[in-house]
Protein 1
Amino acid sequence: MSEHEHHSHFHEPDSQHAQRALSPIELRVRALEALLTEKGYIDPAALDVLIDAYQTKIGPRNGARVVARAWCDAEFRRWLLADATAAIASLGMSGRQGEHMVAVENTPQVHNLVVCTLCSCYPWAVLGLPPTWYKSAPYRARAVKDPRGVLREFGVELPESTQIRIWDSTAEVRYLVLPQRPAGSEDLSEQQLANLVTRDSMIGTGLPGSAA
Amino acid sequence: MSYQSNADLGGQDVRDAIVMEPEGDLFHAPWEPRVMALVVAMGPTGLSNIDMNRAARETIPNYRDLSYYEVWLTALEKLVLQQGVLGDAPPPPKQVLRAELVAAAISKGSAFSRTPAGPARYALGQRVRTIAVQPAHHTRLPAYARGKAGIVERVHGAHVFPDTNARGLGENPQWLYTVAFDEKELWGERNPKQRSTISVDAFEPYLEPA
């Protein structure tokens, strides 16, 4: 379960079960899970495994490995830009919400930014679950219309001449931004490079960390 | 019958600040991971498909007032009722995601590409115009990109067509294209020194020759 449970401070002193009162939404979730279990649609143990997978195994460190490899290996970079699904699968990442991957490369001339204005489409296979802001109305509303304003909110100021290329994920294609390799990073190992790659830099709302 | 999506937010006047979130800060209440997992685990049962799920979510009247996992929960409750899970003859699950199958199911995913019924109507580099009609059902052409001229930038092959799949009318595979628009086409002339290009992934029925 979530680590948040451990932070819970709603202990009922008089309850033998030391169980706090459940909020209305928690009651709904429990009722739905119980119903779907009873009717034979779900295996509750599978929910635990799913939660663990997205909390501990599938997240932006996966995408960071892809980016670092592309920075170190020109052949891999070409493959990633030509057939991202296959190139990413060669590093052991594939499947759910990453079935049809496209990698888009930042250059000194072009900065890429990914959004899903209609819902919350996001490349789970390489970045895990989307951050709340990615699913929120202000990001979805403004990324397509005022990308520079959005980037400014994230602390990213681009030269006026940089063209911004926004990818609205309106179908089942999922986009991964390949950020520019930081200046002065020539001597870093692939692992050190991966550590500079942030989640936001792979969405386009951030830039990789500095090599200094 | 009218159909109202409350999720089509691109270009709308939403002024709230974007709230940053550190990496790894995935859930904000203990029930949220449970909802995420419930929704994912229901996939293999075939009770609904991804397009039905999206339609169920975007038609929630107070969509904008709910957090995203509340949206997911509300839509799943709605689908469970609609599909007769509480009735005398609930539809049997096609497959139940058992704990030991989760890792394999995640790595496999479910591809949406299909064999096309015919050749692609549009080619790379071709100028096209998106249709201006707002259909009375789930669709994936955002309002801001309707009736706009753009260029076909990528051709993705044929994919499951959400407009029919969401209504239980079959996968009806259609060619899928990335269509790119100059910002001026969508928002009018602004600062000509600051250019942006916006693309959507558009199914062939959303397009006309320009």
Note: Chain B has two domains: 31-108, 113-209.
Protein 2
Amino acid sequence: MGRFHRHDDGTVHDTDTDTEHTGDHAHDTGDHSGYATGGERVEVLERIFDENDKTAAANRAQFAAAGVRVVNLMSSPGAGKTTLLRETLGRLAGQVRVGIIEGDIETSLDADRLAGFGAEVALINTGNGFGGECHLDAPMVRSALPRLPLGDLDLVLIENVGNLVCPAEFDVGEDARAMVYAITEGEEKPLKYPVMFRSCGLVVVNKVDLLPYLGFDMDEFLGNLRKVNPAAEVMLMSARTGEGVDAWCDWLRALP
Amino acid sequence: MHELSICGSIADIVTRRAAGRAVKVINVRVGQLRQVVPDTLVYCWELVSADTPLAGSRISIEAVPARIRCRSCDQVTDVGAIPVFACGGCGGFDAEVVSGEEFLITSLELAGEVASS
């Protein structure tokens, strides 16, 4: 997205000059005379995510009251979230009672892939007529809760919409955030999507069975990850071959 | 494209705080670590506010750079465009974000005449 912005009447202007606050943190107390045509200025100071965060707190309280641990699982599309979940459900069956909240812009394809593993699956399609929301927010997750028997569950795994940008912005009431990162995505993504990588306590590095076939430099990737999130726990995995999946299941069982 | 849903939240707050008065400018403070694209926000606001009492108002964005403070040596460092969350003084990674995560409506500028409510 460039800086320039075209209006329907054909005029183009530079938003950096149009939005005169840009880059000037101290400006707020400064000169607003450019706008002041006798109008009043009303101080607001309200956080834009306040409503989402209140709903997230309500979700969190409901999960806690039911004794359920909740993980918000995020990744780009195709990194392997659904494959990992399928492997997870197979391993935890009979030990941990799992519910899934499945976010997808359209289709029930992922939810269908998870059917038959003994877990309750609540699907949220985020299509909204504008091409679909690119993330789950707290009200969407709240809308799925009546479809999960929380009192009979130990763990809820939320499969967020595949996207490295927007899901990181929205607290949905989870206890922990984890991301699945596929080595096919390259080494530099932590630097390009620092907010996502910073927001996760655990980064699962998936598709390591492909290491012999790719020029992926694991040390460079881990170095980039450390630059933006030095505290992140890292787990190497191939959800396809099963390597590392047991360690992930142990991590889920040990959630505080 | 979460700017669209963000504009919905902005509309709710502005409608409540304006209480029927005509709004000209909505001043929004956005930290660098908020992944909001200014042009997209401005464009989405036109979509969301159209055909509502807020039509014709515009969003003005104040960008806040991301900065961290080192817990070891207390130095404050700009995170930079290619973000590195390391202290510029000692190189340590044990640092807290002191700015860049803001995302709020700071103020409204009213049109100077009271809209019918």
Note: Confidence is low (pLDDT under 50) at residues 1-36 of chain A.
